[in-house]
N-acylneuraminate cytidylyltransferase
Amino acid sequence: MATRKRPGENGRRDGTPSKHKPPRADGPGHVAALILARGGSKGIPLKNIKMLAGVPLLGWVLRAAVDSKKFSSVWVSTDHDEIEKVARACGAQVHRRSPEVSKDSSSSLDTIQEFCRLNPEVDFVCHIQATSPCLHPFHLTEALEMITEQGYDSVFAVVRRHHFRWQEVNKACELPSPAATVHAHVWAAGSTGETLNVPRCLPPLAGELTRPLNLDPLNRPRRQDWDGELCENGSFYFSTRHCIMNEGLLQGGKVAYYEMKAEYSVDIDVDIDWPVAEQRVLRYGYFGEANPEVVRLMFCNVSGCLTEGRIYLSKSGEQMVSVNTRDTAGIRMLQRENTEVVLLTSALDSVGRSLADRVAEVTGCQVVEVGAEPLKELKPMVEAKKLGWKDVAFMGCDMPDVGCLNLAGLSAVPHDAPSVAINAAKYICRSGGGAGAVREFAEHILLQKEKAKARRRSTDSV
């Protein structure tokens, strides 16, 4: 991806140059990724582990950090037990922050400095914000290269905005009415003497009119004629230990920015941001190292995924299961896109052979019986089809499925699956087993395929 990288210069708070020389003789030294995830979010309670597009919010940036393979260690700093559990399940180490840096008034810098004091081996810190779920590994890789190869001391993420900004004025205004207006001249710069009707403010102080901060109203530029402005998007901040501990800065020494595209610049502060962020993440988020474009095979458990896991018995003793038509429609969607769907039953559950045959007839899928360790039996099937596990999607619902959930390129569980399966899956459905979860995962697979195709078209056109 083409990004714009432009250096800037910064120094100490008193304006004197930084004397920091980072330890780069044999590489950058110990580079730690650090995500701050306090439990006391005021805007959205426990925001950092709230589910976003099937994944805890914290999980999106942790996945990007871990898969970048550029960090000596990946950490979550928290004061909350549930956040710690999610962090460890996502492969992170945990820094249990002290009460002194867990207050509403505590700054990010306070917490990062405490982390550095407790981890003296760390030379560089990449502070990644959990509220930026569209972060990808290549963003972190390219930004770190600016430190390791170009010699910068700190690098932070920005996005280009085309917003016209105006000076804020006194808000103590009466509601406008025909009698509550006064005549005011347009500001002096370029004024034509034209008068405007404006609401009367209390008190009507001189100089209370707004003014433009970054444009000339007489020469408003078109978007294509204006480069816009660079704004921090909060995704990440790389900084040296020296800048953090000795200068009290996250942006100090020799500073540069890393520009991210607008589609990846998502920030979540309040509830109203959530549904918009979810749609952005589904289209632009990072779902793992697999290439979804080549997914050719999907394994799906019958009990707990395609059905709700219950067996109905008639008076005569006949077994019955309920299959949701939304789920069968989702299977057909995958089949039309040349993705083979294989349904799995287990010798450990009560779905009998005759019942499995009936499910196969309804769905048009092959049904395979697996034992207590499905991975052992499915590996030969994948190899026989000359596929890798990156080409496989897997939908499971319990502990025996964990190995397949971890290995598959795309994996999912219904939202009512036990935590051991949820922690292993890359996607957690909003729907339960037998209630549309298979359809939801099918749509997710197809969306990822479209994203991969769009990226390939974009790359080919460059």
Notes: The first strand starts at residue 5 and ends at 9. The CA atoms of residues 146 and 425 lie 33 Å apart. The radius of gyration is 28 Å.
